Amino acid sequence: MTPNAASPSSGPSGPSRRSFLASTAVATAAVAGGMPLLAACGDSGGGEREGTTSGKAADKLLPAFVASTVANPDLPSKNGSAAGYTGKVDLAALKASVPEKLGTGAPFKIMSPFWGSPPKAGCAYYKALDAAAGTKITWQNQDGNTYGEKLGAVLASSSIPDMVVVPGWELVGKIANAVTAKFMDLGPYLAGDKVKKYPNLAAIPSDAWRMGIFGGALRGIPMPSATAGFITPFYRKDIFDKKGYSVPKSPDEFLSWAKEATSAKAKVWACADMSWTAWNIFGVRGSGTVGWNIGDDGKLTYRVEQPEYLEALEWVRKLFDAGVVHPDDKARTGDQGQRFTAGQVLVYNDNIASWYGKTAEQAASNPDFEIEGMDIFGADGGDPKLWAAQPAGIWSMIRKGASKATIENALAAADFAAAPYGTKERMLVDYGVEGTHYTVKNGVPVKNDLGNSEVLNAWVMLAAPAAYYAHPDFPETARKQVEWQQRMGAFMKKTSTFGMNIVEPTRYANLSSQFEQLELDYVRGNRKLSDVQAAISTWKSSGGDKLRDWYKELIDKNGSGH
């Protein structure tokens, strides 16, 4: 029973925001800040679609929060971390989070991104979930890597599935505006005490629900995420111990260690592209709407205007120039995660879900393998300055015009999917049917071949409980994940746009699009620092300064997310 149904694929070397965020969704880890999380404000009929809804206006739209008491975590959430469960699975002790079946069996269709090969319609897993939830779902699973194209086409058509999963990284351009126009206001079913009909949805934190406000109405059922959801710099602890390496505690120490650890002759390089970690070391905010913040000096700036932005890039450039980054990472080919497990790379950054994914993957074939998360240090070797991730970034939505029966069954499915750890519903969602999809040995559920082919990322995309980690086969990994987030979360601050779903005016939609490729090119030595500085100047003159004025007005009107 783990929220991380699969380890995310690292994808091509050199972090790409789009591919990285898509890969992490396989693990049902919600988006860890970085891409625009867009919404709109205005009337529920689709009037004004720029801006945000926050503060008291947003509070009136939210479901009441009723914490779940079904199973208390061993490690409660702290400093924005996920919660942690470190016990074994006792099937006899599992409780029901939904006392009675909420679905009525009315058929409806769901479109959702899917990574891998979807199971066939009518498979044992889908049948079991429908029977337990009282639903009758036709899944329209689409390739997650090209989901934006499909989503855009569907929303532009007159035929929209009853329920659609909408990832935040796809909410750009026309798709962002279509959300308000095409999906219904769920307030009449979920606002205030109405949500109590759906106890698992009621237990979703209010901050996550606030991110589900689109076009002045509650339209998105959120998948909550830990706000201390930072990209983790992983290192090979087994090799560090064997070689006697000390874990670096400053950028200079890291570079010095990297030079010592790298041996091209032995085919060992210190690290992969460390750009994701560099942003955190130097205190650079994420891209998109989360990149804006009012500083102590009262000035509103975007991430590329931070002095630390160039400092982070220059440090990563030093790593590449020193030859301590694996050549395939420089070329952006292959899988850096595989190079890490092969011992060709000793440090790489990835979603924290890989702590469990790599541990489980290597347990049998490489028992000496040990992965640890390096604590993020500050630019001066002191405490880091970290920025909180948004509390949700993937939503399921119900189309406007859906029948009451469809709405109620869709909400019943989402409520089932949001069941907390320690419940019969969670066990069924994550593992399927005992004896059919898995067996339990010494309190550890183990999927068989059918489980591995059918129990994949479908139901988990509809909704989720508050973020947690639970790995009955490797309970210490869950503990380490939570404790790492708690340590890092102690240094976390919120930007002025935290917790706000914001849609920028369409005229600024592509304003910052040049920076990702420019960053990749600069750290690899293919562009000059002056090129980056020129791009920042161009960004300001071609709309950045006007966008700043727009954000200032928005924050003045709605209040800061600090």
From TrEMBL:
GO terms for cellular component: cell envelope. It is found in: Cell envelope. Keywords: Signal, Transport. Pfam families: SBP_bac_8. InterPro entries: Bact_solute-bd_prot1, SBP, TAT_signal. The keyword Transport applies. Belongs to the bacterial solute-binding protein 1 family. PANTHER family: ARABINOSE-BINDING PROTEIN-RELATED (PTHR43649), SN-GLYCEROL-3-PHOSPHATE-BINDING PERIPLASMIC PROTEIN UGPB (PTHR43649:SF31). This is Multiple sugar ABC transport system substrate-binding protein.
